[in-house]
Design a protein that fits this description.
The complex is a heterodimer.
Chain A: H1 2-18, E1 29-34, E2 37-38, E3 42-45, E4 48-50, H2 52-64, E5 67-72, H3 78-83, E6 89-90, E7 104-105, E8 110-119, E9 134-138, H4 142-147, H5 154-161, E10 164-168, H6 171-180, E11 185-189, H7 190-199, E12 204-206, E13 212-216, E14 219-220, H8 225-240, H9 243-250
Parallel strand pairs in A: 1-5, 1-6, 9-10, 9-11
Antiparallel strand pairs in A: 2-3, 3-4, 6-14, 7-14, 8-11, 8-12, 8-13
Helix pairs in contact in A: 2-8
Chain B: H1 3-39, H2 44-59, H3 62-77, H4 86-111, H5 115-123, H6 128-158, H7 170-181, H8 185-212
Helix pairs in contact in B: 1-2, 1-4, 1-7, 1-8, 2-4, 3-4, 4-6, 5-6, 6-8, 7-8
The chains are: A alpha/beta, B mainly alpha.
Chain lengths: 261, 216
């Protein structure tokens, strides 16, 4: 019995430990942490992860001779992942506003508006019409913080007071709730909203008024300016030679949203 | 994305779920026995230690324990996690958790064996160790199979908690596919996979139970 237990333990240990050494080819590894429930910035496509941000990161790695690793993470654990070094950066439509002090940031590269998605034919036509309705948002996003009155945008906080805020684990679930009528509207990034409208044509529409504007940046561990500078320099090259615009176009992100110079 | 492509993707996630399942059982089933014996130890210190262990593990969420097992080396001791596989942390956390539940099931089984059997074995000249191994344990196994079966089936479904530390198992893949394609289909398919997996597990447990029912 004892021998059997020991053998089993040894076998388990062997199986588990052998998996960890394969990326040791001496190359620097860029492990990009992202939320895979977030098309078009990072999502599952066939057997791999793609998206605007992941394609940018992959191109940066190609140009710098790094190994690219796309690591889908649990969004609620992103700071633990980053600070403990299990990921190199958070690069995934990552809004800077409200998080300025928490990370070493790249320069903003995408201008992103927060919009309201409703079902086609909904009586909600303006932000005022949201009064008394149920509005879904994704957990731990700046728009949620502002709508809940925990940010510094007074107008957005006042708007948030007029309706019931429902916090969802991810956008897909929020849009499922919208589709099924469990919420009346969803506040989300314009890029995601457009993608959802394209996936289900005629089902959803977007209010013309926007809730607030934000910018996306790449978040590095606080103090890691060296990696930030390297990634940013390559990213700027990609802006100059048009690679970024090309990748953006492939994911339906408009050219005038790209703000990195 | 094609339907078969989606199923193939889910199957690759199922492999990860099965890994967690198998490795956890391999560690937790024997370790649970150690915990059960420790909990029943006559030494009050040993017994109190294991009692505390069971109490903490059962009294806190598994999700929290997974986070703790993975991130504690860095946050408590400053060790880099670069060489700490996520799957290893997952299996360790699951094993520590399930061992506590198994231990209590084993204890119930062991204590349900009548004192008369210990006395009879002693009268026949068996040592305490022999009595436990040859008389008590075989009967215990028989009695605990249904309760262990419950836990094993729960374990299949709990594997979805592994994503807490970014282990992409089947349910996570299903959610990602669902997000990427704005469809519920992957979630439905994942449900079917879980059911089939558990059907097989339940079938195996039933066969095991019948094999041990040699006095009926």
């Amino acid at each position: 019995m004892k021998k059997l237990v020991l053998m089993m333990a040894a076998c388990v240990a062997a199986c588990l430990f052998t998996g960890c050494d394969k990326a040791d080819d001496g190359k620097m590894k860029l492990v990009v942490g992202f939320d895979a429930d977030f098309p078009p910035y990072g999502f599952k496509s066939g057997s791999e992860y793609k998206g605007f941000d992941l394609d940018l990161a992959r191109e940066v790695c190609v140009r710098r001779g790094w190994t690219f690793v796309a690591n889908p993470i649990n969004w609620d654990a992103k700071d633990m992942e980053l600070n403990s070094g299990s990921i190199s950066c958070i690069w995934n439509g990552f809004t800077m506003q409200g998080r300025e002090a928490g990370y070493t940031w790249s320069e903003p590269y995408v201008d992103n508006s927060q919009v309201v998605l409703v079902k086609t034919g909904s009586p909600i036509k303006t932000l005022k019409d949201l009064a008394g309705k149920k509005v879904g948002v994704q957990t731990d996003t700046p728009v949620q913080k502002e709508l809940a009155g925990k940010g510094d945008k007074k107008a957005v906080a006042a708007l948030g007071k007029t309706f019931t805020l429902i916090v969802m684990p991810n956008y897909n679930q929020a849009v499922m709730d919208l589709d099924s009528g469990a919420v009346d509207a969803v506040a989300l990034d314009i890029g995601v909203a457009k993608r959802k409208m394209a996936d289900k044509p005629g089902k959803f529409e977007m209010l013309k008024e926007i809730v607030m504007t934000e910018t996306y940046g790449i978040g590095f561990k606080k103090g890691n300016t060296q990696l930030r500078d390297e990634v940013q320099a390559t990213l700027k090259e990609m802006v100059k030679d048009g690679t970024m615009a090309k990748i953006a176009a492939a994911y339906g992100i408009e050219g005038n949203a790209l703000i990195l110079k | 994305m094609t339907f078969t492509g989606m199923l193939l993707d889910l199957l690759s996630g199922l492999v990860v779920s099965i890994e967690i399942f198998v490795f956890t059982l391999m560690l937790a089933l024997p370790f649970g026995l150690v915990v059960a014996l420790g909990r029943m130890s006559r030494n009050p210190l040993v017994s109190a230690g294991f009692r505390l262990y069971i109490s903490v593990v059962r009294g806190t969420p598994l999700m929290l324990q997974i986070l703790f097992v993975y991130f504690a080396p860095y946050y408590l001791f400053g060790c880099s996690l670069a060489r700490y596989p996520r799957l290893l942390a997952t299996v360790l956390a699951f094993s520590l958790n399930y061992a506590a539940y198994f231990a209590e099931i084993y204890r119930g089984g062991i204590q349900s064996i009548e004192a008369g059997q210990w006395e009879a074995a002693k009268a026949l000249g068996f040592s305490a160790g022999q009595t436990f191994r040859l008389v008590v344990l075989p009967q215990t196994i028989k009695r605990v199979i249904p309760a262990i079966g419950n836990e094993v089936i729960t374990l299949v479904k709990d594997t979805s908690l592994a994503f807490t530390i970014a282990v992409t198992e089947m349910f996570t893949l299903a959610k990602q596919l669902s997000s990427a394609n704005t469809t519920m289909m992957p979630l439905v398919a994942a449900g079917v996979f879980y059911y089939v997996f558990n059907y097989i597990v339940a079938f195996a447990m039933e066969r095991l139970e019948r094999r041990f029912a040699y006095y009926r």
